[in-house]
Automatic annotation (TrEMBL):
PANTHER family hit by this protein: IG-LIKE DOMAIN-CONTAINING PROTEIN, SURFACE ANTIGEN
Name of the molecule in the record: Secreted protein (Por secretion system target)
Protein keywords: Signal
Signal peptide: 1-19
Protein backbone atom coordinates (compact mmCIF):
# COMPACT_ATOMS: atom_id res chain seq x y z
CA UNK A 1 0.00 0.00 0.00
CA UNK A 2 2.79 2.38 0.95
CA UNK A 3 4.58 1.65 -2.36
CA UNK A 4 1.42 2.40 -4.41
CA UNK A 5 0.92 5.70 -2.58
CA UNK A 6 4.48 6.77 -3.40
CA UNK A 7 3.93 5.99 -7.09
CA UNK A 8 0.71 8.01 -7.16
CA UNK A 9 2.38 11.01 -5.54
CA UNK A 10 5.29 10.85 -8.00
CA UNK A 11 2.89 10.73 -10.93
CA UNK A 12 0.98 13.76 -9.67
CA UNK A 13 4.20 15.72 -9.14
CA UNK A 14 5.38 14.89 -12.70
CA UNK A 15 2.09 16.03 -14.19
CA UNK A 16 2.11 19.27 -12.22
CA UNK A 17 5.73 20.05 -13.23
CA UNK A 18 4.86 19.77 -17.01
CA UNK A 19 1.45 21.46 -17.00
CA UNK A 20 1.23 24.35 -19.64
CA UNK A 21 -0.20 27.77 -18.88
CA UNK A 22 -0.91 30.85 -21.00
CA UNK A 23 2.16 33.07 -20.89
CA UNK A 24 4.67 30.26 -20.76
CA UNK A 25 7.58 30.61 -23.20
CA UNK A 26 9.83 28.13 -24.89
CA UNK A 27 12.42 28.06 -27.66
CA UNK A 28 12.29 25.94 -30.79
CA UNK A 29 14.77 26.28 -33.66
CA UNK A 30 16.03 29.66 -32.39
CA UNK A 31 12.54 31.17 -32.22
CA UNK A 32 11.08 31.99 -28.82
CA UNK A 33 7.34 31.34 -28.50
CA UNK A 34 4.76 32.38 -25.93
CA UNK A 35 1.61 30.39 -25.31
CA UNK A 36 -1.40 32.61 -26.00
CA UNK A 37 -4.16 30.01 -25.72
CA UNK A 38 -4.67 26.43 -24.54
CA UNK A 39 -8.10 26.06 -26.03
CA UNK A 40 -7.19 25.95 -28.83
CA UNK A 41 -3.43 25.53 -28.51
CA UNK A 42 -1.95 28.73 -29.98
CA UNK A 43 1.42 30.44 -29.64
CA UNK A 44 3.00 33.71 -30.74
CA UNK A 45 6.60 34.30 -31.79
CA UNK A 46 8.22 36.78 -29.39
CA UNK A 47 11.96 36.68 -30.14
CA UNK A 48 14.60 35.27 -32.45
CA UNK A 49 18.21 34.23 -31.88
CA UNK A 50 20.32 35.37 -34.82
CA UNK A 51 22.47 32.27 -34.49
CA UNK A 52 19.66 30.67 -36.46
CA UNK A 53 20.81 32.58 -39.57
CA UNK A 54 19.45 35.22 -41.96
CA UNK A 55 16.86 32.94 -43.58
CA UNK A 56 13.83 32.21 -41.38
CA UNK A 57 10.70 30.15 -41.84
CA UNK A 58 7.93 30.71 -39.31
CA UNK A 59 6.28 27.27 -39.09
CA UNK A 60 2.58 26.53 -39.20
CA UNK A 61 2.85 24.54 -35.95
CA UNK A 62 5.39 23.90 -33.21
CA UNK A 63 5.52 21.06 -30.64
CA UNK A 64 6.33 21.59 -26.99
CA UNK A 65 6.17 18.86 -24.34
CA UNK A 66 4.36 16.65 -26.79
CA UNK A 67 1.67 19.28 -27.36
CA UNK A 68 1.20 20.68 -30.87
CA UNK A 69 0.58 24.42 -30.99
CA UNK A 70 -0.61 26.50 -33.97
CA UNK A 71 1.67 29.51 -34.59
CA UNK A 72 -0.97 32.23 -35.02
CA UNK A 73 0.80 35.53 -34.52
CA UNK A 74 4.12 37.32 -34.78
CA UNK A 75 4.79 39.45 -31.72
CA UNK A 76 5.77 43.10 -31.77
CA UNK A 77 9.46 43.63 -32.65
CA UNK A 78 9.96 39.85 -32.72
CA UNK A 79 12.31 39.97 -35.71
CA UNK A 80 13.34 43.64 -35.32
CA UNK A 81 16.93 44.20 -36.50
CA UNK A 82 17.87 40.53 -36.88
CA UNK A 83 19.79 40.91 -40.19
CA UNK A 84 17.22 38.76 -41.98
CA UNK A 85 17.42 38.40 -45.76
CA UNK A 86 14.42 36.09 -46.19
CA UNK A 87 11.27 35.37 -44.21
CA UNK A 88 8.52 32.83 -44.90
CA UNK A 89 5.38 33.49 -42.88
CA UNK A 90 3.43 30.40 -41.80
CA UNK A 91 -0.07 29.68 -43.04
CA UNK A 92 -1.59 29.88 -39.53
CA UNK A 93 -0.39 33.43 -38.84
CA UNK A 94 -3.34 35.79 -38.36
CA UNK A 95 -1.57 38.94 -37.21
CA UNK A 96 1.87 40.53 -37.13
CA UNK A 97 2.60 43.08 -34.40
CA UNK A 98 4.23 46.49 -34.57
CA UNK A 99 7.78 46.52 -35.97
CA UNK A 100 7.56 42.74 -36.39
CA UNK A 101 10.08 42.62 -39.26
CA UNK A 102 11.48 46.13 -38.99
CA UNK A 103 15.05 46.99 -39.96
CA UNK A 104 16.31 43.94 -41.83
CA UNK A 105 17.52 43.23 -45.37
CA UNK A 106 14.34 41.62 -46.67
CA UNK A 107 13.90 41.86 -50.46
CA UNK A 108 10.78 39.82 -51.18
CA UNK A 109 7.85 39.02 -48.88
CA UNK A 110 4.65 37.04 -49.38
CA UNK A 111 1.92 37.77 -46.84
CA UNK A 112 -0.34 34.68 -46.73
CA UNK A 113 -4.08 34.98 -47.24
CA UNK A 114 -4.70 34.03 -43.58
CA UNK A 115 -3.02 37.20 -42.28
CA UNK A 116 -5.73 39.68 -41.29
CA UNK A 117 -3.61 42.55 -40.02
CA UNK A 118 -0.06 43.80 -39.74
CA UNK A 119 1.14 46.40 -37.27
CA UNK A 120 2.61 49.85 -37.70
CA UNK A 121 6.25 49.89 -38.88
CA UNK A 122 6.04 46.14 -39.57
CA UNK A 123 8.42 46.20 -42.58
CA UNK A 124 9.99 49.64 -42.05
CA UNK A 125 13.65 49.98 -43.12
CA UNK A 126 14.14 46.92 -45.31
CA UNK A 127 15.19 46.49 -48.94
CA UNK A 128 11.86 45.28 -50.28
CA UNK A 129 11.37 45.38 -54.05
CA UNK A 130 8.35 43.07 -54.08
CA UNK A 131 5.43 42.48 -51.71
CA UNK A 132 2.49 40.14 -52.24
CA UNK A 133 -0.42 41.28 -50.10
CA UNK A 134 -2.62 38.38 -49.07
CA UNK A 135 -6.37 38.39 -49.64
CA UNK A 136 -7.15 38.60 -45.92
CA UNK A 137 -5.44 41.92 -45.33
CA UNK A 138 -7.69 44.99 -45.41
CA UNK A 139 -5.39 47.83 -44.41
CA UNK A 140 -1.78 48.90 -44.75
CA UNK A 141 -0.95 50.74 -41.51
CA UNK A 142 1.27 53.72 -40.90
CA UNK A 143 4.92 53.52 -41.92
CA UNK A 144 4.56 49.78 -42.44
CA UNK A 145 6.61 49.83 -45.67
CA UNK A 146 8.46 53.10 -45.27
CA UNK A 147 12.06 53.31 -46.52
CA UNK A 148 12.24 50.34 -48.87
CA UNK A 149 13.20 50.00 -52.54
CA UNK A 150 9.94 49.36 -54.36
CA UNK A 151 9.82 50.32 -58.02
CA UNK A 152 6.26 49.09 -58.46
CA UNK A 153 3.29 48.05 -56.33
CA UNK A 154 0.16 46.04 -56.97
CA UNK A 155 -2.48 46.78 -54.35
CA UNK A 156 -5.30 44.18 -54.42
CA UNK A 157 -8.98 45.00 -54.15
CA UNK A 158 -9.20 43.78 -50.53
CA UNK A 159 -7.15 46.77 -49.31
CA UNK A 160 -9.50 49.52 -48.12
CA UNK A 161 -7.10 51.85 -46.29
CA UNK A 162 -3.47 52.93 -46.61
CA UNK A 163 -2.04 54.72 -43.62
CA UNK A 164 0.20 57.60 -42.69
CA UNK A 165 3.55 57.46 -44.54
CA UNK A 166 2.91 53.82 -45.39
CA UNK A 167 5.19 53.92 -48.46
CA UNK A 168 7.23 57.05 -47.74
CA UNK A 169 10.89 57.09 -48.84
CA UNK A 170 10.50 54.51 -51.57
CA UNK A 171 12.31 56.85 -53.90
CA UNK A 172 12.38 54.45 -56.86
CA UNK A 173 8.63 53.83 -56.83
CA UNK A 174 7.29 54.83 -60.26
CA UNK A 175 4.15 52.77 -60.79
CA UNK A 176 1.21 51.62 -58.70
CA UNK A 177 -1.72 49.45 -59.78
CA UNK A 178 -4.81 49.50 -57.54
CA UNK A 179 -7.45 46.86 -58.23
CA UNK A 180 -10.27 48.21 -56.03
CA UNK A 181 -13.23 49.86 -57.76
CA UNK A 182 -13.93 51.69 -54.48
CA UNK A 183 -10.80 53.75 -53.80
CA UNK A 184 -8.94 52.88 -50.58
CA UNK A 185 -8.72 55.75 -48.12
CA UNK A 186 -5.28 57.34 -48.06
CA UNK A 187 -3.45 60.19 -46.35
CA UNK A 188 -2.86 63.33 -48.39
CA UNK A 189 -0.62 66.22 -47.44
CA UNK A 190 1.44 65.91 -44.25
CA UNK A 191 2.25 62.25 -43.78
CA UNK A 192 1.16 61.41 -47.35
CA UNK A 193 0.77 57.67 -47.85
CA UNK A 194 3.11 57.81 -50.87
CA UNK A 195 5.12 60.94 -50.10
CA UNK A 196 6.18 62.11 -53.63
CA UNK A 197 3.38 61.21 -56.06
CA UNK A 198 4.55 63.19 -59.08
CA UNK A 199 6.98 60.44 -60.11
CA UNK A 200 4.36 57.69 -59.95
CA UNK A 201 2.16 56.37 -62.78
CA UNK A 202 -1.15 55.13 -61.36
CA UNK A 203 -3.36 52.45 -62.93
CA UNK A 204 -6.93 51.99 -61.68
CA UNK A 205 -10.02 50.06 -62.82
CA UNK A 206 -11.94 51.27 -65.87
CA UNK A 207 -14.43 54.03 -65.16
CA UNK A 208 -13.12 54.94 -61.71
CA UNK A 209 -11.05 58.05 -62.45
CA UNK A 210 -13.59 60.47 -61.00
CA UNK A 211 -14.02 58.39 -57.85
CA UNK A 212 -10.28 58.16 -57.30
CA UNK A 213 -9.84 61.88 -57.85
CA UNK A 214 -12.60 62.58 -55.31
CA UNK A 215 -10.84 60.26 -52.85
CA UNK A 216 -7.66 62.40 -53.15
CA UNK A 217 -5.78 59.98 -55.38
CA UNK A 218 -4.37 62.99 -57.22
CA UNK A 219 -0.99 64.46 -58.11
CA UNK A 220 0.34 61.35 -59.85
CA UNK A 221 2.46 61.58 -62.98
CA UNK A 222 -0.28 59.85 -64.98
CA UNK A 223 -3.50 57.99 -64.30
CA UNK A 224 -4.52 55.06 -66.52
CA UNK A 225 -7.96 53.47 -66.35
CA UNK A 226 -8.05 49.76 -67.15
CA UNK A 227 -6.07 47.08 -65.36
CA UNK A 228 -6.55 44.48 -68.09
CA UNK A 229 -7.45 44.87 -71.75
CA UNK A 230 -8.12 48.44 -72.92
CA UNK A 231 -7.03 51.32 -70.73
CA UNK A 232 -7.46 55.09 -70.65
CA UNK A 233 -4.83 57.76 -70.03
CA UNK A 234 -5.59 61.48 -70.21
CA UNK A 235 -9.01 60.85 -71.79
CA UNK A 236 -7.65 58.67 -74.62
CA UNK A 237 -8.47 54.94 -74.58
CA UNK A 238 -5.88 52.49 -75.90
CA UNK A 239 -5.89 48.84 -76.93
CA UNK A 240 -2.73 46.74 -76.76
CA UNK A 241 -1.73 45.56 -80.24
CA UNK A 242 1.43 43.68 -79.23
CA UNK A 243 2.44 42.53 -75.77
CA UNK A 244 5.80 41.45 -77.16
CA UNK A 245 6.66 44.84 -78.63
CA UNK A 246 4.55 46.85 -76.17
CA UNK A 247 2.57 48.71 -78.82
CA UNK A 248 -0.93 50.16 -78.64
CA UNK A 249 -3.51 51.89 -80.79
CA UNK A 250 -6.03 54.54 -79.84
CA UNK A 251 -9.66 53.38 -79.76
CA UNK A 252 -11.71 56.18 -78.17
CA UNK A 253 -11.62 59.70 -76.73
CA UNK A 254 -13.56 61.38 -73.93
CA UNK A 255 -14.42 64.96 -74.90
CA UNK A 256 -13.86 66.15 -71.34
CA UNK A 257 -10.23 66.21 -72.45
CA UNK A 258 -10.95 69.29 -74.55
CA UNK A 259 -10.74 70.20 -78.23
CA UNK A 260 -6.94 70.22 -78.51
CA UNK A 261 -5.44 66.73 -78.63
CA UNK A 262 -1.73 65.94 -78.56
CA UNK A 263 -1.43 62.19 -78.92
CA UNK A 264 1.63 60.98 -76.99
CA UNK A 265 4.38 58.85 -78.50
CA UNK A 266 4.34 56.58 -75.45
CA UNK A 267 1.80 55.86 -72.74
CA UNK A 268 2.19 54.09 -69.39
CA UNK A 269 -0.22 51.61 -67.87
CA UNK A 270 0.97 50.21 -64.56
CA UNK A 271 4.64 49.36 -64.86
CA UNK A 272 4.55 48.98 -68.64
CA UNK A 273 5.27 51.71 -71.17
CA UNK A 274 3.69 51.27 -74.59
CA UNK A 275 4.49 52.90 -77.93
CA UNK A 276 1.53 54.42 -79.78
CA UNK A 277 1.81 53.12 -83.36
CA UNK A 278 -1.77 53.30 -84.66
CA UNK A 279 -4.77 55.60 -84.58
CA UNK A 280 -7.67 53.15 -84.56
CA UNK A 281 -10.84 53.38 -86.65
CA UNK A 282 -13.21 56.16 -85.50
CA UNK A 283 -11.03 56.86 -82.43
CA UNK A 284 -11.75 60.60 -82.44
CA UNK A 285 -14.91 60.62 -84.54
CA UNK A 286 -17.16 63.66 -84.01
CA UNK A 287 -15.47 65.06 -80.89
CA UNK A 288 -15.46 68.79 -81.75
CA UNK A 289 -11.65 68.76 -81.99
CA UNK A 290 -9.90 71.88 -83.30
CA UNK A 291 -6.23 70.88 -83.14
CA UNK A 292 -4.46 67.51 -83.41
CA UNK A 293 -0.82 66.51 -83.16
CA UNK A 294 0.16 62.96 -84.16
CA UNK A 295 3.58 61.70 -82.98
CA UNK A 296 6.36 60.26 -85.12
CA UNK A 297 5.70 56.79 -83.67
CA UNK A 298 2.36 56.45 -85.47
CA UNK A 299 2.49 54.39 -88.68
CA UNK A 300 -1.17 54.16 -89.66
CA UNK A 301 -4.31 56.26 -89.22
CA UNK A 302 -7.50 54.24 -89.42
CA UNK A 303 -10.85 54.78 -91.10
CA UNK A 304 -12.84 57.73 -89.82
CA UNK A 305 -10.23 58.39 -87.14
CA UNK A 306 -10.83 62.17 -87.02
CA UNK A 307 -13.90 62.38 -89.22
CA UNK A 308 -16.44 65.14 -88.62
CA UNK A 309 -14.61 67.51 -86.27
CA UNK A 310 -13.52 71.14 -86.61
CA UNK A 311 -9.79 70.55 -86.96
CA UNK A 312 -8.01 73.59 -88.35
CA UNK A 313 -4.51 72.66 -87.15
CA UNK A 314 -2.99 69.26 -87.92
CA UNK A 315 0.54 67.96 -87.45
CA UNK A 316 1.22 64.54 -88.93
CA UNK A 317 4.14 62.51 -87.58
CA UNK A 318 7.09 61.86 -89.87
CA UNK A 319 6.54 58.08 -90.01
CA UNK A 320 2.87 57.85 -90.99
CA UNK A 321 2.51 55.51 -93.96
CA UNK A 322 -1.23 54.88 -94.35
CA UNK A 323 -4.06 57.40 -94.01
CA UNK A 324 -7.36 55.54 -94.01
CA UNK A 325 -10.77 56.18 -95.55
CA UNK A 326 -12.54 59.31 -94.23
CA UNK A 327 -9.71 59.82 -91.71
CA UNK A 328 -9.95 63.64 -91.73
CA UNK A 329 -13.14 64.20 -93.72
CA UNK A 330 -15.43 67.09 -92.73
CA UNK A 331 -12.98 69.31 -90.90
CA UNK A 332 -11.68 72.87 -91.23
CA UNK A 333 -8.14 72.39 -92.52
CA UNK A 334 -6.79 75.22 -94.68
CA UNK A 335 -3.16 74.12 -94.96
CA UNK A 336 -1.79 70.58 -95.04
CA UNK A 337 1.64 68.99 -95.39
CA UNK A 338 1.70 65.25 -96.03
CA UNK A 339 5.04 63.80 -94.79
CA UNK A 340 7.34 61.89 -97.11
CA UNK A 341 6.62 58.65 -95.25
CA UNK A 342 3.01 58.43 -96.48
CA UNK A 343 2.50 55.86 -99.23
CA UNK A 344 -1.29 55.79 -99.49
CA UNK A 345 -4.10 58.32 -99.01
CA UNK A 346 -7.41 56.52 -98.98
CA UNK A 347 -11.00 57.33 -99.95
CA UNK A 348 -12.25 60.72 -98.73
CA UNK A 349 -9.25 60.99 -96.38
CA UNK A 350 -9.24 64.81 -96.54
CA UNK A 351 -12.50 65.44 -98.35
CA UNK A 352 -14.74 68.35 -97.35
CA UNK A 353 -12.17 70.66 -95.78
CA UNK A 354 -11.03 74.17 -96.71
CA UNK A 355 -7.53 73.30 -97.90
CA UNK A 356 -5.91 75.97 -100.05
CA UNK A 357 -2.25 75.07 -99.54
CA UNK A 358 -1.37 71.39 -100.02
CA UNK A 359 2.07 69.82 -100.02
CA UNK A 360 2.18 66.13 -100.93
CA UNK A 361 5.03 63.92 -99.69
CA UNK A 362 7.46 62.28 -102.08
CA UNK A 363 6.49 58.65 -101.32
CA UNK A 364 2.76 58.70 -102.09
CA UNK A 365 1.84 56.02 -104.61
CA UNK A 366 -1.95 55.99 -104.43
CA UNK A 367 -4.33 58.92 -104.06
CA UNK A 368 -7.72 57.37 -103.39
CA UNK A 369 -11.19 58.27 -104.59
CA UNK A 370 -12.31 61.71 -103.34
CA UNK A 371 -9.15 61.94 -101.21
CA UNK A 372 -9.10 65.75 -101.48
CA UNK A 373 -12.54 66.40 -102.91
CA UNK A 374 -14.37 69.64 -102.15
CA UNK A 375 -11.45 71.73 -100.98
CA UNK A 376 -10.05 74.91 -102.50
CA UNK A 377 -6.49 73.98 -103.48
CA UNK A 378 -4.82 76.88 -105.28
CA UNK A 379 -1.70 75.20 -106.63
CA UNK A 380 -1.10 71.47 -106.87
CA UNK A 381 2.03 69.46 -107.62
CA UNK A 382 1.56 65.72 -107.68
CA UNK A 383 4.91 64.04 -106.95
CA UNK A 384 6.57 61.57 -109.30
CA UNK A 385 5.97 58.76 -106.78
CA UNK A 386 2.21 58.76 -107.50
CA UNK A 387 0.99 55.96 -109.76
CA UNK A 388 -2.79 56.38 -109.64
CA UNK A 389 -5.21 59.23 -108.94
CA UNK A 390 -8.67 58.07 -107.92
CA UNK A 391 -12.14 59.17 -108.95
CA UNK A 392 -13.09 62.66 -107.74
CA UNK A 393 -9.66 62.94 -106.09
CA UNK A 394 -9.44 66.76 -106.43
CA UNK A 395 -12.94 67.64 -107.61
CA UNK A 396 -14.16 71.21 -106.97
CA UNK A 397 -10.82 72.89 -106.31
CA UNK A 398 -12.31 75.67 -108.41
CA UNK A 399 -9.66 78.35 -107.71
CA UNK A 400 -6.70 76.23 -108.79
CA UNK A 401 -4.29 78.16 -111.00
CA UNK A 402 -1.48 75.61 -111.37
CA UNK A 403 -1.51 71.83 -111.80
CA UNK A 404 1.60 69.68 -112.24
CA UNK A 405 1.03 65.94 -112.60
CA UNK A 406 3.91 63.63 -111.66
CA UNK A 407 5.84 61.75 -114.33
CA UNK A 408 4.85 58.25 -113.14
CA UNK A 409 1.07 58.60 -112.96
CA UNK A 410 -0.53 55.90 -115.09
CA UNK A 411 -4.24 56.44 -114.44
CA UNK A 412 -6.42 59.45 -113.66
CA UNK A 413 -9.89 58.61 -112.36
CA UNK A 414 -13.36 59.87 -113.24
CA UNK A 415 -13.99 63.54 -112.28
CA UNK A 416 -10.47 63.66 -110.77
CA UNK A 417 -9.96 67.39 -111.49
CA UNK A 418 -13.47 68.47 -112.45
CA UNK A 419 -14.38 72.02 -111.45
CA UNK A 420 -17.46 74.18 -111.19
CA UNK A 421 -17.95 75.62 -114.72
CA UNK A 422 -18.78 79.09 -113.41
CA UNK A 423 -15.77 79.29 -111.06
CA UNK A 424 -12.80 77.51 -112.64
CA UNK A 425 -9.76 79.56 -113.71
CA UNK A 426 -7.11 76.90 -114.52
CA UNK A 427 -5.97 77.48 -118.13
CA UNK A 428 -3.44 74.78 -118.91
CA UNK A 429 -2.44 71.27 -117.96
CA UNK A 430 0.29 68.91 -119.07
CA UNK A 431 -0.39 65.17 -119.03
CA UNK A 432 2.88 63.24 -118.66
CA UNK A 433 3.95 60.41 -120.95
CA UNK A 434 3.31 57.79 -118.26
CA UNK A 435 -0.47 58.27 -118.29
CA UNK A 436 -2.34 55.52 -120.14
CA UNK A 437 -5.94 56.08 -119.02
CA UNK A 438 -8.00 59.14 -118.09
CA UNK A 439 -11.49 58.75 -116.70
CA UNK A 440 -14.84 60.36 -117.43
CA UNK A 441 -15.09 64.11 -116.88
CA UNK A 442 -11.58 64.03 -115.34
CA UNK A 443 -10.75 67.42 -116.87
CA UNK A 444 -14.21 68.93 -116.92
CA UNK A 445 -12.69 72.41 -116.56
CA UNK A 446 -14.37 75.17 -118.54
CA UNK A 447 -11.42 77.57 -118.30
CA UNK A 448 -8.86 75.26 -119.95
CA UNK A 449 -7.23 76.78 -123.04
CA UNK A 450 -4.20 74.48 -123.47
CA UNK A 451 -3.71 70.76 -122.88
CA UNK A 452 -0.31 69.21 -123.54
CA UNK A 453 -0.02 65.42 -123.80
CA UNK A 454 3.52 63.96 -123.83
CA UNK A 455 2.72 60.31 -124.59
CA UNK A 456 3.35 59.10 -128.12
CA UNK A 457 0.63 56.48 -127.60
CA UNK A 458 -2.52 58.42 -126.72
CA UNK A 459 -4.05 57.72 -123.30
CA UNK A 460 -7.54 56.26 -123.45
CA UNK A 461 -10.27 58.81 -122.73
CA UNK A 462 -14.02 59.18 -123.01
CA UNK A 463 -15.08 61.07 -126.10
CA UNK A 464 -18.55 62.55 -126.44
CA UNK A 465 -21.60 62.00 -124.32
CA UNK A 466 -22.50 63.38 -120.92
CA UNK A 467 -19.24 62.36 -119.29
CA UNK A 468 -16.67 63.32 -121.92
CA UNK A 469 -13.22 63.47 -120.29
CA UNK A 470 -13.07 67.17 -121.19
CA UNK A 471 -16.82 67.76 -120.86
CA UNK A 472 -18.06 70.06 -123.63
CA UNK A 473 -15.00 72.30 -123.68
CA UNK A 474 -12.79 70.67 -126.36
CA UNK A 475 -13.51 73.27 -129.01
CA UNK A 476 -11.98 75.96 -126.79
CA UNK A 477 -8.81 73.96 -126.00
CA UNK A 478 -5.54 74.02 -127.92
CA UNK A 479 -4.23 70.42 -127.84
CA UNK A 480 -0.45 69.97 -127.96
CA UNK A 481 0.79 66.49 -128.89
CA UNK A 482 4.20 64.98 -129.73
CA UNK A 483 5.51 65.30 -133.29
CA UNK A 484 4.25 62.60 -135.66
CA UNK A 485 1.25 61.57 -133.53
CA UNK A 486 -1.59 63.44 -135.27
CA UNK A 487 -2.98 60.22 -136.69
CA UNK A 488 -2.99 58.30 -133.44
CA UNK A 489 -4.55 61.17 -131.55
CA UNK A 490 -6.94 62.72 -134.07
CA UNK A 491 -7.25 61.43 -137.62
CA UNK A 492 -6.94 57.63 -137.48
CA UNK A 493 -10.17 55.62 -137.35
CA UNK A 494 -11.24 55.33 -133.75
CA UNK A 495 -8.98 58.17 -132.55
CA UNK A 496 -10.37 59.66 -129.34
CA UNK A 497 -8.63 63.04 -129.10
CA UNK A 498 -10.92 64.80 -131.54
CA UNK A 499 -12.77 68.10 -131.44
CA UNK A 500 -9.90 70.19 -130.03
CA UNK A 501 -9.19 73.52 -131.66
CA UNK A 502 -6.45 73.77 -132.73
CA UNK A 503 -4.28 70.64 -132.51
CA UNK A 504 -0.52 71.07 -132.99
CA UNK A 505 2.36 68.62 -132.88
CA UNK A 506 4.55 70.80 -130.69
CA UNK A 507 4.62 68.98 -127.36
CA UNK A 508 8.11 68.99 -125.85
CA UNK A 509 10.06 65.82 -125.26
CA UNK A 510 9.96 64.46 -121.75
CA UNK A 511 13.48 65.70 -121.02
CA UNK A 512 12.78 69.15 -122.36
CA UNK A 513 9.50 69.30 -120.51
CA UNK A 514 11.26 68.46 -117.26
CA UNK A 515 13.92 71.11 -117.88
CA UNK A 516 11.19 73.69 -118.48
CA UNK A 517 10.07 73.20 -114.89
CA UNK A 518 13.47 73.49 -113.23
CA UNK A 519 15.18 76.22 -115.29
CA UNK A 520 14.34 79.91 -114.96
CA UNK A 521 15.70 82.97 -116.76
CA UNK A 522 15.70 86.11 -114.64
CA UNK A 523 15.78 89.41 -116.53
CA UNK A 524 17.84 92.10 -114.80
CA UNK A 525 18.39 95.71 -116.02
CA UNK A 526 21.88 94.88 -117.37
CA UNK A 527 21.90 91.09 -117.64
CA UNK A 528 20.14 87.72 -117.87
CA UNK A 529 20.63 85.18 -115.03
CA UNK A 530 20.17 81.45 -115.63
CA UNK A 531 19.00 79.54 -112.52
CA UNK A 532 17.84 75.98 -111.83
CA UNK A 533 16.22 74.19 -108.90
CA UNK A 534 18.41 71.08 -108.98
CA UNK A 535 22.02 70.14 -109.75
CA UNK A 536 21.94 70.92 -113.49
CA UNK A 537 25.30 71.81 -115.01
CA UNK A 538 25.25 74.45 -117.79
CA UNK A 539 27.67 73.45 -120.55
CA UNK A 540 27.05 76.42 -122.86
CA UNK A 541 24.51 78.91 -124.12
CA UNK A 542 23.83 80.58 -127.48
CA UNK A 543 21.81 83.75 -127.86
CA UNK A 544 19.94 84.46 -131.12
CA UNK A 545 17.84 87.34 -132.41
CA UNK A 546 14.21 86.59 -133.12
CA UNK A 547 15.17 86.25 -136.79
CA UNK A 548 17.74 83.54 -135.98
CA UNK A 549 21.02 85.53 -136.13
CA UNK A 550 23.59 84.29 -133.58
CA UNK A 551 24.86 87.19 -131.47
CA UNK A 552 26.52 85.65 -128.41
CA UNK A 553 27.83 82.37 -126.98
CA UNK A 554 29.35 81.41 -123.65
CA UNK A 555 29.18 79.14 -120.60
CA UNK A 556 28.40 81.60 -117.80
CA UNK A 557 25.06 81.64 -115.98
CA UNK A 558 25.20 85.47 -116.13
CA UNK A 559 24.80 87.05 -119.62
CA UNK A 560 25.47 90.78 -120.03
CA UNK A 561 22.77 92.60 -122.02
CA UNK A 562 23.94 96.19 -121.52
CA UNK A 563 24.83 96.63 -125.22
CA UNK A 564 21.83 94.83 -126.66
CA UNK A 565 18.73 96.41 -128.11
CA UNK A 566 15.36 95.93 -126.46
CA UNK A 567 13.26 93.10 -127.82
CA UNK A 568 12.63 89.34 -127.90
CA UNK A 569 15.60 86.96 -128.25
CA UNK A 570 16.01 83.18 -128.45
CA UNK A 571 18.28 81.56 -125.81
CA UNK A 572 19.53 78.02 -126.50
CA UNK A 573 20.85 76.26 -123.35
CA UNK A 574 22.98 73.12 -123.35
CA UNK A 575 22.88 71.33 -119.95
CA UNK A 576 24.47 68.09 -118.85
CA UNK A 577 20.94 66.64 -118.73
CA UNK A 578 19.57 67.97 -122.02
CA UNK A 579 18.87 70.94 -124.27
CA UNK A 580 16.38 73.73 -123.69
CA UNK A 581 15.28 76.70 -125.81
CA UNK A 582 13.58 79.71 -124.25
CA UNK A 583 12.30 83.04 -125.46
CA UNK A 584 13.57 85.97 -123.38
CA UNK A 585 12.68 89.64 -123.28
CA UNK A 586 15.45 92.24 -122.96
CA UNK A 587 14.11 95.58 -121.74
Amino acid sequence: MKKQLLILIATLLFSISYAQTVGDTFIDNFITYEITSLSPNNVETVDYDTNGGAVVTIPDTVTYNNIVFDVTSVGSACFFDKQLTSIIIGNNIISCGQSAFRQNQLVNVVIPDNVLNIGNYSFLNNQLTNIDFGSGLTSIPEQSFQNNQFTSLNIPDNITAIGWRAFESNNQLTCITVEATVPPTIITGTGDSFNTRSNIDLTIPTGTANDYAAATWTGFNSVAEGITGNFTVNHITYAITSSTNNTVKTTDYNTTGGTVVNIPATVTRGCETYTVTEIGNNSFLQNQLTSVTIPDTVISIGEGAFNNNSISSLTLGSNVEIIGNWAFRHNSLTSLTIPNSVTSISIYAFGNNNITNLSLGSSIEIIGDSAFSENDILSLTIPDSVISIGDNAFIYSDNMTSLVIGNNVTSIGDFAFAMNPSLSILTNVTIPASVTAIGEYAFGISSLTDVTVLATIPPTITTGGTYDTFATYRSNIHLHIPPGTMGAYVTDPGALWTGFNPVTEDALSVDEFQLQHVVKIITNPESLTITSTNSLQLNSYTLYTITGAKIHTGASTEISTSTMSKGIYILALDFDQGMLIKKVMIN
